[in-house]
Write a structure and sequence with these properties.
The complex is a heterodimer of chains A (574) and B (82). In chain A, strands 11-12-13-14-15-17-16 form a seven-stranded mixed beta sheet, sandwiched between helices. In chain A, strands 2-1-3-4-5 form a five-stranded parallel beta sheet, with helices on both faces. A four-stranded parallel beta sheet of chain A has the order 8-7-6-9, sandwiched between helices. Chain A has three domains: 216 residues, Rossmann fold; 146 residues, 3-Layer(aba) Sandwich (Rossmann fold); 174 residues, Aminopeptidase. Chain A has 574 residues and is of the alpha/beta class. In chain A, strand 7, helix 14 and strand 8 form a beta-alpha-beta unit. Chain A has 23 helices and 18 strands. Chain B is mainly α. Chain B is built from four helices and no strands. In chain B, helix 1 crosses helix 2. The chains are: A alpha/beta (574), B mainly alpha (82). At the A-B interface, helix 1 and helix 10 of A face helix 2 and helix 3 of B.
């Protein structure tokens, strides 16, 4: 991780080609260094963060005065940093009989800030939670004394989590966990605080900036979806080919505890929706044996979406995994104990994340915890099902090989699609897909739950969600369309994104037929589409011409409905 | 073994160059914050922390505010046994 002075040197670099994002920072202590660290680290993450900083200790004035500079600036993200030191200051000033209600009244204040911000801005709010200060008035007894500061601070952190869990646009940045990791003496430097009102030490600034940028990256659709595991000395201790199944270290054998705990961590990631793949230099049957037979293995074959064990080069194998899963290399993490393999993969596939695992397997987990690799801004039940979906996809691929005629194969799938406007039941999934879809996404406009609720109410927008199921299984909601009425003739396709899981099933034709039917029924004559290129959506560059749209002088694409005939599709409406 | 005062000055100069990100900064005993463009109250804190780290010392809150020039900063560092 770069230190503060290195981040600061980034500020002199050329930001002009980077993605611009407007961020407001509201703090009750001095935040100049934090802002420099954020902008500097933003550069390394491809962002030109345009940061507006409220004058020190102006949070309330900026938030509750709707004519303030904050609202004039129109940020896309508002960072609110109320420090524990100021919190303690407030606690110190109130009457002792009010101490027991302190957290509740503070939470109320935060709720008001949040609703004013989100009610008057189209912005996400990142709120820094509270690092612990034990003022040692009660000693350990503070833990059973409701009026103690420690009790109230911890209660406030807990209540903040409960509040955030119900408010989609509130993201907590876990400052408290950073202090746990580095220790209070490293987090906070008293002499600096007394001289400058800054509560973050110079050394902790990059960590705080990084934890914040993790959220911003994820909101921008950049996050990890898959972890690829080496086996020997990564997933278990020892070499299965040499040591044999009874001598590899997992469970109680040797340092097996380190590997068992590592496997539990991977299993939890899988349950959260991270795809697990294996890439190992081994004979496949030998590599799979522990998964099938070893009683202490936590991971089983049905946890693994793609299992590749052979003697080929790992970079090529990872390319094959990428090909099957159809996700970007930059959303993959490769874990391997061997520095040589790590370097080969890094050199050949620079986008992939390859952590420098420590030499001692006992350190793996603690090290991985510090990297915060798997930040997310959503979690739904479908995440937990993802492994199954990819396994079904592998099965479907093997059946497809038996059909020589593509149409016969598609017919044989008995595909059904449920077409519905966005509603409160499908909103979370639509929002999630909007964040996740990078490749099949024509304009890459990201929508959150609240944005979608706004669209549902809008009279000028029409929304469609599509599910797809076939004889092998249900893919769930995999495609969404947002149409915007431009005038009585023209409908504009504001958004068209689709999960890459359902490519090559004729879904595009089915969706366009649906849109065309709707448009005709409502008297429109032209459907207009637009392709906005990103680093990742090359796949749909020719989407509109392929569907018969004609190019316009301004680079847009138009489909005239007067001579539109339904396109070939083997999908039926459910 | 304590360090020669000129040697300390030389090492601090390197820190100034790095923190202020300016290769041309030359400091002397009599140099004041107002003599160096980039040396404001914020970068002062960065300098203080970098010097603390380099010599493995800690300044008190009062010391951080007290120096009128580089020479006085050097006195303070030497008082800490460097």
């Amino acid at each position: 991780m770069k230190d503060f002075s290195q981040l600061k040197k980034n500020l002199k670099k050329d930001f002009s080609n980077l993605k611009m994002l407007k961020i407001a920072v509201l703090g009750d202590t001095a935040t100049q260094f934090l802002i420099q660290a954020l902008r500097g680290l933003g550069y390394d993450n491809g962002f030109n963060l345009e940061i507006w900083e409220a004058d020190f200790n102006q949070i309330e004035r900026q938030v509750f005065d709707l004519s303030s500079e904050l609202y004039e600036f129109k940020p896309e993200i508002v960072i609110v940093f109320q420090s524990s030191h100021k919190l303690l200051g407030k606690y110190n000033k109130i009457k002792p009989e009010q101490h027991s209600l302190f957290a509740s009244s503070e939470l109320e204040g935060i709720e008001n800030i949040y609703s004013s911000l989100t009610g008057n801005l189209n912005a996400k709010v990142i709120y820094y939670n509270y690092t612990e200060i034990d003022d040692s008035i009660f000693g350990n007894y503070a833990n059973k004394t409701e009026s103690s500061f420690l009790f109230q601070l911890r209660k406030l952190n807990y209540e903040l989590m409960a509040f955030a869990s119900k408010n989609a646009n509130l993201y907590l940045c876990d400052l408290s966990s950073i202090q746990n990791q580095v220790g209070k003496a490293n987090f906070f430097q008293t002499s600096i605080y007394i001289n400058t009102e800054m509560v973050l030490s110079i050394d902790v600034l990059p960590k705080v900036a990084s934890k914040t940028i993790d959220i911003i990256n994820t909101l921008d659709g950049k996050f990890k979806k898959c972890v690829i595991l080496d086996l020997d000395n990564t997933t278990w201790g020892g070499i299965i080919g040499d040591d044999g199944i009874e001598n590899i270290q997992i469970g109680s054998l040797g340092i097996g505890k380190a590997f068992s705990e590592f496997q539990y961590w991977i299993k939890k990631l899988k349950n959260r929706g991270i795809i697990i793949a294996v890439c190992s230099k081994n004979t496949e049957s030998v590599a799979q044996e522990p998964f099938e037979k070893h009683p202490d293995m936590v991971l089983h074959l049905d946890d693994i979406s793609v299992f590749i064990a052979n003697w080929e080069n790992k970079a090529d194998n990872i390319r094959q995994i990428q090909n099957i899963l159809n996700i970007g290399f930059d959303s993959m993490v490769f874990l391997d104990d061997n520095p040589f393999e790590r370097n080969i993969v890094r050199e050949n596939i620079p986008e992939i994340c390859v952590p420098e695992l420590p030499e001692d397997p006992a350190d793996y987990l603690e090290y991985l915890y510090t990297l915060n690799l798997f930040e997310t801004v959503s979690f739904s039940n479908e995440d937990a099902e993802r492994t199954k979906l990819y396994q079904i996809e592998a099965k479907r691929a093997s059946v497809q090989q038996k059909f020589t005629n593509e149409d016969d194969f598609l017919k044989s799938l008995n595909m059904l699609s449920l077409v519905e406007p966005f509603n409160k039941f499908n909103t979370p999934r639509v929002a999630q897909l909007s964040q996740r879809s990078n490749q099949f996404n024509l304009r890459t406009v990201r929508y959150t739950d609240t944005d979608i609720e706004r669209l549902i109410m809008s009279k000028d927008n029409f929304t469609f969600s599509f599910t797809l199921e076939d004889k092998f299984g249900d893919n769930g909601l995999i495609c969404a369309i947002i149409l915007q009425q431009e005038n009585s003739d023209i409908l504009f396709i504001d958004t068209w994104f689709m999960s890459c899981r359902v490519l090559k099933r004729g879904m595009e034709n089915f969706v366009l037929n649906t849109v065309a039917d709707f448009a005709k029924e409502n008297g429109f004559t032209i459907v207009r589409g637009e392709y906005l290129a990103t680093a990742k959506n090359e796949m749909v560059k020719d989407h509109y011409p392929n569907l018969g749209f004609e190019e316009q002088p301004n680079g847009n694409w138009e489909l005239n409905l007067n001579n539109y005939e339904n396109r070939k599709s083997f999908i039926n409406i459910k | 073994m304590t360090m020669d005062r000129n040697e300390i000055l030389k090492q601090i100069n390197v820190i100034f160059i790095d923190v202020l990100d300016n290769e041309d900064v030359v400091i002397e005993e009599t140099t004041q914050a107002t003599d160096v463009d980039e040396w404001d109250s914020l970068t002062h804190i960065q300098l203080v922390v970098a010097i603390e780290k380099h010599f493995k010392i800690r300044f008190t809150s009062k010391e951080i505010q007290s120096w009128n020039n580089v020479g006085e900063m050097l006195n303070c560092i030497q008082e800490k046994g460097i």
